[in-house]
Amino acid sequence: MSNLINLKKGEKGNGPDFVQELAGVPDNLNESNIESFYSTISDIFQRNEASEASLVRILIALYKVISNANENFLNVYIDNNFVLDLPFESKSKSIQTQLLNVLYALSTHAPLVFNAEVSEKIDNYFIREYPKKTLTIIGIYACQFDSLEDPWPLLDLLVKNHSSYFRRDIDCCQDYVSLLVYLCQEFEDYRRTRIQYCWNSICQCLNTENEPTLTTCYNSLCQIYELDPEIISELSFPIFACSIHLRKKQDVSHSVLSLLFRYQPNFDSSDNSKYSTRNRSMSSPSSPKTPTSSSIMDLVQSLIEVSQTDVNANLILVKMAMNENISRLLLHNATWMTKDMPSKIDTIRLFAVVLSHEDLRTDIMYKAET
Questions:
Q1: Which end of the chain has fewer CB atoms within 10 angstroms, the N or the C?
Q2: Which residues contact 1 (CB under 8 A, 6 or more apart)?
Q3: Is the bond preceding residue 285 a cis peptide, omega within 30 degrees?
């Protein structure tokens, strides 16, 4: 008596014989019947007649086959594009859970199946509902970037759906941000073509109130900046978030200062009182709005406040004040001149930089604080 699967018993997708045959998978499969097995279960998926319990059993069996990592079995699945026959449109939570397990196994053992059509289905049916699980699948897939012919359809879901990864009801924002940094650090092609999107996506994550996540985001922005300062300096700076977090998130302020050490927004008073940025053409995700002069003044005031206890904030102000327009803003409210930042010597150092701008010396003379 043969130990191979009897596919005739499984054609209907239900009944005790069907269950018994599936229980023997993958041991009852070989190179001669594997394609027929895939075709049979794909037909069951497409007919949409089998019960939920039967579809779950089939997906569990398929997961076992893929996880077995038999190269010949995997090649047959990939070459025939059987992945498109999976029940992506099912509303059943049980089926969705098992389908995600199959996609996890495929990302590990057969990443080539994730073409544009499959990526679109993941986008339509899973990203927003299961962001943590899909992030795991994309993360495993991303590690194989260099061996993939066209990794972009799946990987671009990361920036397309950035808002799905920092919702309050889930906890995967740190993993999401870390994955973007990993991709930029490890793969030159990804960094060259996607670094600006990663910067903007991480900036969007700064809307969270979770302090460990905020710390991870700011540290990640530092890492992204160091990979290509020239490109990042052309992108929008998260000035509003920095201003707020310096004042209200003491445990995060050190990471904010680390970013400001690397990258300070420049202010051009001749350009309609907006920041000077050289905009790059990016269709998605959208960059934060270009801040106004009041926003940069908020940042300066936040740094002044923090500098009374942290000399690093003073040093950042010194760097920013080398721009005459920033020094001019500092003179608008010069009460800082009377404060210890955090010592009198540190205050004098900032004053000396402001004083170095010849066009401001007359204004300085008439300041009551001087």
A1: N
A2: none
A3: yes
